[in-house]
Amino acid sequence: MNKPLFTACLALALAACDGARTPPRAGAPAPQAMRPPAPPDAGPRTELAAAAPPPAPPPDPLALAHEDPESWTPEAGDHLEKARHLREEGDVAAALLEVRRELADAPADEEALLALTRLAPRVGERALAALAYERLAALRPEDPFPLMQRSRLLLALGDAKGAVEAGEEALLRDPENAETYQALGRAHLAAGEPLRAITRLQQAVELAPEHGYALNNLGYAYLQVNDDARALEVLTRAAELLPEVAYVQNNLGVALERAGRTDEARAAYLAAMDLAPAYVKAQLNVARLGQLASVSGRLPAEGAGLRGVPREPQVDGAFDAAQ
Question: Tens digit of pLDDT for each residue in 275-286?
């Protein structure tokens, strides 16, 4: 072989061997497999909280559960029939319990609700009766009677605002019912709103001119705003229509006294005492006039009261035939 050619081939072979052994360049790391990121620490495992049960409905304030509900069956007896029997025997409290048990079975039983409205006030449960009238009003959306009666009961319970609200709702159902205006007028008087009371009571008298109780209450409202002339006019009519009602006679006496007609006022007070001997306001009015007469020698139209006797005539509040 030609020596120069042999030398060149040998050099090429050595260079190829050196290239195969050359390490990779610095700064070019070999690729590595990517590890998935570690999941966040969720802490100790906990059981899922059980879903809270829905709240129980509030108990029905009118209903009374059976003493042994598991053993009771409809064949065990008619609660309303039992209530009628107990009422006839004079056991009103037990009759009321039976009516309430009927309402536990049938909350919308109108007969039971009406029975409750009659029985509950007789044992001092006026609040129950007011609730029963509220339910009846919902069951009879066009009937003003339940709301009118509810207004009266709320007034007796001292809830003048509630009485006004019930009366206004009753008025929406029947704007031509004198009793509704009468009940609403009384509610306004109790709420300290005599001018509104006068408006409602005037409407009652327009619808029922012979409504003695509405006339009495209208006269009382006029006295509250010191419209004594009108008070005397309507109370005179009220006393003619209700000659047997003591507080009407007493209120007439107050109007007469304010008008300076003290002899007639004393006669009206005495008439009230004859009708109701224990009627304290009439007694105080007679005593005041008597003591003033003993000092002055006559019955004055006005004057300062004496010791132990109120200076002002004692007028009575608003009433109606339901009281």
Answer: 999 999 999 999
Same structural domain, 151 and 256: no
Q: For the segment 238-264, what is each residue's pLDDT rounded down to a tens digit?
A: 999 999 999 999 999 999 999 999 999
Q: Give me the domain span that covers residue 116.
A: 61-70+77-129
CATH number at residue 312: 1.25.40.10
Residues 87 and 192 in one domain: no
Domains in the chain: how many in total?
A: 3
What predicted TM-score, i.e. pTM, was given to this entire model? 0.72
* DSSP codes of every residue in 227-282: -HHHHHHHHHHHHHH-TT-HHHHHHHHHHHHHTT-HHHHHHHHHHHHHH-TT-HHH
Question: What is the tens place of the pLDDT at every residue in 66-109?
Answer: 765 554 455 545 899 999 999 999 999 999 999 999 999 999 99
Give the Cβ contact number of residue 135 at 10 Å: 21
Comparing CA positions, the residue from 276, 273, 275, 281 lying closest to residue 309 is: 281
The tokens describing 57, both together, are 């409905």
